[in-house]
Amino acid sequence: MAGVAGFAAACGRDGSPNAQCGDGSAASGEVFEWKMATSWPRDFPGLGVGASRLAEKIGKLSNGRLKVRLFAANELVPPFEVFDAVERGTVEMGHAAPYYWKGKVPACQIFAGPPFGMTAQELNGWLYYGGGLELWREAYAPFGIIPFPVGNSSMQMGGWFNRQINSLDDLQGLVMRIPGIGGEVLNRAGGTAMSLPGAEIFTALQTGTIDATEWVGPYNDQAFSLPRAAKHYYYPGWHEPGTALEGIVNAEAYSALPDDLQQIVETACQAATMDMLSEFMARNGDSLAQMREAGVDIRPFPDDVLGELKRISLEVMEELAHSDEMSAKTWNSFRAFSETVQGWTDLSEKAYLNQR
Ligand code: CA
Questions:
Q1: C-beta separation of 305 from 312 below 8 A
Q2: Tens digits of residue pLDDT in 36-62
Q3: 65-109 pLDDT, tens per residue?
Q4: Residue 215 Cα, ligand 1 centroid: separation in angstroms?
Q5: Ligand 1 centre and the CA of 31: distance in Å?
Q6: In angstroms, rounded to a whole number, what is the distance separating the alpha carbons of residues 229 and 204?
Q7: Least enclosed by CB within 10 Å: which of 118, 203, 232, 288?
Q8: Is the bond preceding residue 236 a cis peptide, omega within 30 degrees?
Q9: Among 277, 247, 322, which residue's Cα sits nearest to residue 123?
Q10: CB 248 within 8 A of CB 94
Q11: C-alpha 29 – ligand 1 centre gap (Å)
């Protein structure tokens, strides 16, 4: 039993043995209560569930010393104001997609993973072992925010369209919900990109406010009933080949934690990355099979359309890299790592997948 009565509340309400509490150190027994705001609807499969599993995991690993209460989109702050809320300290932590903050930190679009960029596992290589995460932390430091990779959507789909894309002409005037750099690429290809929070997508597509939307992949798209709102499902997700999601933590709140709780936050975030990626892999396979069974029209973008989108993507990335110093540093690092790692991916996984 935790020895000192005064520590009872902090040392596990179940009264279980707790070596840390037993040492009588007030600091080790202090209980921290954090709020986590997310950009996702409550219990939204994949992204939202991943964030709530992370909150639970931190609570369990810390034996209740760091309690993280999750607030879904709009429960505390709107989905696109999570970054501001963490910066202000309204919440100690957030879970979102980095590219939502492009107006504040242009380089965030590179950490998320740009169009025609690296796959999820290549991107993890850059973030954890190629200097990517250090640059990410440098980019968010002026806002008093520490980013942690938390999850990856894995390869996304090209999206749901109510018109066929048979040539570049079909992109002219296309109104599509597509955020980030992909949206800028679409604009330059003749379309009109919109950014809508997840909860508004289905209605916008069904009522014709938008002609097309991308969302995530088969698992999430099915959960949003998108097969009922559009005629055609296109692949591949050229604009998001493996988007990293982020846990963002208020730097002051983080530095107030003792070392072991900081380690718990960091390790739980890493574990959440693996968990989310694994879940997407499993469930996307299931959902795609169900859609095929249901007769959803699934088709590839034409090669020349993809070729032009790739050309424009590189143009946009080069411009971004020249827009500010942080973006330039980040893009140079990303591109150098990407070129090197692709040498390996091409003769390992790609060669293997082509033959399987
Ligand atoms: Ca997406």
A1: no
A2: 999 998 888 888 999 999 999 999 999
A3: 999 999 999 999 999 999 999 999 999 999 999 999 989 999 999
A4: 4
A5: 37
A6: 9
A7: 203
A8: yes
A9: 277
A10: yes
A11: 41
